[in-house]
Specification:
Blueprint (H helix, E strand, L loop, with lengths): L14 E2 L1 E5 L7 E5 L2 E6 L2 E7 L4 H9 L1 E5 L6 H9 L7 H5 L3 E2 L9 E2 L4 E12 L4 E12 L18 E4 L2 E4 L9 H30 L24
Antiparallel strand pairs: 1-11, 2-3, 2-6, 4-5, 5-10, 6-9, 7-8, 9-10, 11-12
Length: 236
C-alpha cells in the first residue's frame, strides 16, 4: 500500500457532532456545535470540549462554569450544522432552529435541548489554554435520556436514536453494526470451547475403541492371538 506523507494536522475522524448549550444571566441562551469533545474519565465521570476563545459561547462557559452536551441525530443534523456556522452574537439559535430550551436538573443557567435524546450536564473544573483552542475539562453532574428509547426491560437503546457523527467535513448517520464490545474475545473463547469439546469427543471415542476393540480387529481373540493353544505358528 503506497501512502503520501502530509504535515501535522487534525485527521482523527469520525468525531461526535454535538450541540453544546450554554447561557449567561440576563442574556438569551446559545448553542455551539462542537466536534472536539471527548470522554476523559469514568470515575468521576468527566468530559472535555475544546472551543476557540473568539467564539461567542466561549465567554459564557468560562464565566458561568457550566454547559450541556446534547447528542445529535439525523433529525437534528440541519440544526447542528446551523449552530456551527452562525454566531449567537447575530441570531437567536433556539428561535432560528426551532429547538426548545429546557431546564437542566443540576445547572443554574445552561439549558438542555429538549429534542436531543441525551443531555449531559457539565460543570467546568479546569481550563487548559492550549493554542488555537482552549479545553474545558468538566465533571458530569447528571444525564437525561428520552424515555421513547427505553425498551421493555428499561434499557436505553441509544443506537436506535439515529445518532450522527462528523467525518472530514461531512455529517454521517451511523451505519450497520459490525461487532460489539468484547466480540473478538468472545469469538475466540467460543472457538476454543468448540475445539476443546471436539478434542474431548475424540479422546472419548479412542478410549472406547481401545477397551472394546471396535473397528480395529484387536481384542477379539487375545489369548494365543488366534493360534491353537501350545502350538507355535509356522513360518510363512
Amino acid at each position: 500500500m503506497k501512502k503520501q506523507h502530509w504535515r501535522a494536522g487534525n485527521m482523527l475522524y469520525p468525531l461526535p457532532a454535538v450541540m453544546v448549550s450554554c447561557a449567561r444571566d440576563g442574556e438569551k441562551p446559545n448553542i455551539i456545535t462542537a466536534a472536539w469533545v471527548g470522554t476523559i474519565c469514568s470515575d468521576p465521570a468527566m468530559v472535555s470540549v475544546s472551543i476557540r476563545p473568539e467564539r461567542y459561547s466561549y465567554d459564557m462557559i468560562r464565566e458561568t462554569g457550566e454547559f450541556v452536551i446534547n447528542l445529535t441525530t439525523k433529525k437534528l443534523a440541519w440544526a447542528a450544522d446551523y449552530c456551527g456556522v452562525r454566531s449567537g452574537r447575530d441570531v437567536d439559535k433556539f428561535k432560528e432552529t426551532g429547538l426548545t430550551p429546557g431546564r437542566a436538573q443540576y445547572l443554574k443557567l445552561a439549558p438542555v435541548i429538549e429534542e436531543s435524546p441525551v443531555n449531559i450536564e457539565c460543570r467546568v473544573t479546569e481550563i487548559k489554554e492550549l493554542g488555537s483552542h482552549h479545553m474545558f475539562l468538566a465533571e458530569v453532574l447528571g444525564v437525561s435520556v428520552d424515555e421513547e428509547y427505553l425498551n421493555e426491560k428499561g434499557r436505553f437503546e441509544l443506537n436506535q436514536t439515529g445518532l450522527i457523527a462528523y467525518s472530514h467535513g461531512t455529517y454521517m448517520a451511523l451505519g450497520e453494526p459490525c461487532g460489539s464490545f468484547g466480540w473478538s474475545v468472545k469469538r475466540k473463547k467460543k472457538d476454543e470451547k468448540e475445539r476443546s469439546a471436539d478434542r474431548n469427543a475424540r479422546s472419548g471415542k479412542e478410549h472406547h475403541r481401545r477397551h472394546t476393540g471396535e473397528g480395529s480387529g484387536k481384542g477379539l481373540h487375545r489369548r494365543g492371538s488366534g493360534h491353537t493353544k501350545g502350538r507355535r505358528p509356522s513360518a510363512q
